[in-house]
Q: What sequence folds into this?
């Protein structure tokens, strides 16, 4: 459930009409609902109530806005970060260092040191090479890095190929059949406290079976490691739970996910952690845009040209992803349209032949389920600026990221004096 609902014919974010935000902040603009973020954070935690002391680290990549992170840190969430930049954000949002997990296949030496100096809770090591480098850096600085080894279980997550991470051919983790050997090698190095296993097989999973299969393999691995005399006290089960992008679509619920986790991990005797991203933030945000004009000149359906584009919301262009699109003040009329942005690429298309609310020039529209992997994936392509972001809380709202004008981006550029 989210808090973007029609009231008196106008779509609201909690108690604020989106027409007001459009007028006062301009469009395009991302709008997040605090109540929805909080609700999702609590529903996910509640779903894990049969797991002892679950550690939940929000995947910052899904929505790194500081205000969003602050809402989640106040809910007791930690952070899963994948870069030095995300680490700085998590700390800035008051996430406790011990609640921060550092994932990612290409952490640089500087980022490893940054994590050590912040004394973060855990590094998820993606390769033997990375483990050795971290050990050397930790030892040189008199630190101990708490680590989990990320394994690649070779399980097909049955999601979009670009967001599938657990197949043998994907770049993530170490092959699970080599995990005992690599774990043992790394555990013997000074500077590392090898304490667990991490797994994450992909995002937007629409069925629980691949997760259950992957977790089952992790359970076997933990038993094998212990049989070899290794210590395993932690397991990080990653993120991946999908969310409905189409009204009426049904996906496994957090409760079903939690029940599956409780069943599979029953005898593991480890502290479990989780890295949800989309399931927390996805439906807590929308992208609000205005129709620039409607092109009716061709003999196909009309092209509704909105002021948001693929640089603001990349998912449709990148993954062919569906986002529900609705009028902010629906007249009740429906028609078949193409919804496109102004960018000079055919890929800048949000929907083709979509039966939806009829939109006319000047109308406001929302792209739903844009709270995760929305603003964070924006670029300034076509010298468009970065969209503003707004957080709504009941009857108040705040701009939580200023619109960054194209000119401000240009300010960082220099023309050398020899030109
Ligand atoms: N943990 C790790 C190690 C990850 O790589 C990810 C996402 C997550 C957790 C969070 O996964 P979630 O719970 O959000 O599914 N840009 C794509 C999604 C990329 C996901 C990358 N990794 C999209 O727009 O669909």
A:
């Amino acid at each position: 459930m989210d808090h973007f609902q029609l009231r008196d014919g106008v779509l609201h974010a909690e108690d604020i009409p989106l027409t007001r935000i459009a007028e006062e902040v301009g469009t395009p603009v991302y709008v997040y609902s605090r109540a929805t973020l909080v609700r999702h954070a609590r529903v996910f935690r509640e779903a894990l109530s049969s797991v002892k002391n679950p550690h939940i680290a929000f995947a910052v990549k899904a929505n790194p806005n500081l205000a969003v992170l602050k809402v989640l840190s106040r809910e007791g969430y930690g952070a899963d970060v994948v870069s030095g930049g995300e680490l700085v954000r998590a700390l800035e949002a008051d996430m406790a260092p011990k609640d921060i997990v550092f994932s990612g296949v290409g952490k640089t030496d500087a980022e490893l040191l940054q994590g050590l100096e912040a004394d973060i809770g855990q590094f998820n090591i993606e390769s033997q090479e990375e483990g050795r480098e971290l050990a050397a850096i930790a030892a040189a600085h008199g630190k101990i890095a708490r680590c989990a080894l990320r394994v690649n279980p070779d399980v097909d997550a049955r999601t979009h190929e670009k967001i599938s991470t657990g197949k043998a051919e994907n770049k993530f983790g170490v092959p699970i059949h080599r995990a005992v050997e690599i774990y043992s090698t790394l555990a013997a190095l000074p500077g590392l406290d090898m304490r667990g296993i991490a797994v994450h097989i992909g995002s937007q999973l629409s069925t629980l079976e691949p997760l259950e299969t992957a977790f089952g393999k992790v359970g076997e691995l933990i038993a094998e490691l212990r049989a070899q005399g290794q210590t395993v006290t932690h397991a990080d089960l990653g993120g991946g739970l999908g969310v409905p992008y189409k009204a009426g679509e049904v996906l496994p619920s957090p409760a079903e996910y939690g029940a599956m986790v409780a069943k599979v991990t029953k005898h593991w005797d480890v502290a479990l952690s989780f890295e949800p991203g989309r399931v927390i933030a996805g439906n807590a945000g929308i992208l609000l845009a205005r129709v620039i004009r409607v092109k009716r000149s061709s003999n196909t359906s009309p092209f509704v040209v909105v002021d948001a584009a693929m640089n603001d919301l990349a998912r449709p262009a990148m993954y062919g992803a569906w986002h529900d699109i609705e009028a902010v003040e629906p007249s009740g009329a429906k028609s078949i349209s193409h919804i496109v942005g102004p960018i000079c690429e055919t890929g800048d298309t949000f929907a083709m032949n979509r039966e939806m609310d009829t939109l006319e020039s000047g109308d406001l529209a929302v792209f739903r389920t844009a709270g995760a992997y929305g603003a964070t994936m924006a670029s300034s392509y076509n010298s468009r600026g970065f969209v503003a972001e707004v957080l709504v809380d009941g009857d108040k709202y705040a701009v939580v990221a200023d619109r960054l004008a194209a000119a401000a981006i240009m300010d960082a550029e220099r023309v050398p004096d020899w030109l």
Summary: The longest strand covers residues 285-295. Residues 4-32+283-410 form a domain with the Lyase, Ornithine Decarboxylase; Chain A, domain 1 fold (CATH 2.40.37.10). The chain has a mean pLDDT of 97. The chain has two domains: 4-32+283-410, 34-278.
